[in-house]
Specification:
Elements lengths: L19 E4 L4 H8 L5 H4 L11 H8 L11 H21 L2 E4 L5 E4 L6 E2 L3 E4 L9 E8 L1 H7 L7 H14 L3 E8 L3 E8 L2 H20 L11 H7 L22 H36 L4 E3 L4 E3 L38
Parallel strand pairs: 6-7
Antiparallel strand pairs: 1-3, 2-5, 3-4, 5-6, 7-8, 9-10
Length: 343
């Protein structure tokens, strides 16, 4: 058993097995370096189209080195990290578990499936069930309203369920749990065992993605979810490079009919969005004009809130970035010039 007061104390490490190689970097920068080129548990859900953070297309672009994703830390994330050890200790106390490893940057790389890796939050054991061996504990600090929308009593959101199974697949451990502190005062603990079928499918999709990366065969984008990703991938236009729709080169990579259809569709949607925005402004201004300085209108069918918002003056600082500015313009055919009449 680990010294609970000093998780770095010398210990036996029975969780080490032939399924993976463990790394224990001391610095975050080293940990991030280890993650490069690996498909981690956080990214597993992207392979199934259920990740709230990235799509399979974006994951592919990251793995090929085309994109670099750096998630900025907000106040909620900072406090989540600070509270992780406290939440983990409380959940383990409630369930009679022991924390056997709490090193901040532990990282496991699978020897069974290339490019499969995981960074567990904690490794735990249950003295009442020694036959289970060491397990995984994934900690979540969840907003109350997020929990109401996406958490079930006995089931975490799909991307977290995939995350835990991925971790078990990468480490070879046979059980794990998700421990969530909801709204700061309520705990949900969901236990899972190694699901060979799910883990096998995760590994199959990892192998497929790695094969795509090797062959430079990108997955099909989700045109809505991947909007920003596509703008980033194709952020650099080649100056003076153009294409003449009316006089295409014989060896052109573009199909003129397909390109014409895409351009017409983009233009149609731009016009529709402009008209919809104009209609929205008209409707809101008419309503506001009618209710005047009334702050709230309510009834059985409707509630209207028209509070006054005060915004202090501020100077916004934006990081340097590049992106493509796509504009589609429908040209008006030029009128034919009248023929010159002789004298």
């Amino acid at each position: 058993m680990t010294d609970q007061k000093n998780p770095r104390a010398k210990r036996a490490e029975p969780w080490k097995n032939e399924h993976c190689v463990w790394h224990y970097p001391r610095k975050e920068s080293t940990w991030k370096k280890l993650r490069e080129g690996q498909i981690t548990a956080t990214a597993a859900a992207a392979l199934f189209g259920v990740s709230p953070y990235m799509t399979a297309y974006e994951l592919y672009q990251v793995l090929t080195g085309t994109l670099s994703v750096e998630i900025g830390e907000n106040e909620r994330m900072t406090w989540g990290k600070r509270l992780e050890p406290v939440i983990a200790a409380g959940i383990c106390e409630d369930n009679g578990w022991n924390i056997v490893d709490a090193r901040r940057y532990m990282f496991a790389i699978s020897t069974i499936c290339d490019h499969m890796a995981a960074s567990p939050d904690f490794l735990i054991e249950d003295p009442a069930r020694p036959e289970l061996g060491v397990g995984l504990l994934e900690i979540k600090n969840v907003d109350k309203f997020v929990a109401l929308d996406s958490w079930e009593d006995e089931e975490a959101p799909a991307h977290i369920e995939f995350q835990l199974q991925h971790q078990m697949g990468a480490t070879g451990l046979k059980w794990g749990a998700v421990g969530a502190l909801v709204g700061g005062n309520s705990v949900r603990t969901i236990e899972r065992t190694h699901d060979a079928e799910v883990i096998g499918e995760i590994m199959r999709r990892i192998n497929d993605m790695c094969q795509r990366v090797a062959e430079r065969r990108e997955p099909s984008p989700d045109w809505l979810k991947d909007y920003d990703t596509i703008r980033a991938v194709y952020r650099d236009a080649e100056p003076a490079k153009s294409f003449d729709l009316d006089n295409p080169a014989p060896d052109s990579a573009f199909d003129v009919d397909v390109l014409q259809t895409l351009i017409a569709n983009a233009h149609e949607k731009n016009v529709a969005a402009k008209l919809a925005d104009d209609d929205k402004k008209r409707a809101q201004s008419e309503l506001l004009h009618y209710i005047g300085d009334t702050e709230t209108v309510f009834g059985e069918s409707w509630k209207v809130s028209a509070t006054t918002t005060h915004k202090a003056a501020y100077v916004a600082e934006f990081k340097e970035t590049s992106f493509r500015n796509l504009r589609v313009t429908k040209r008006t055919p030029k009128a034919e010039k009248p023929a010159n009449k002789g004298n």
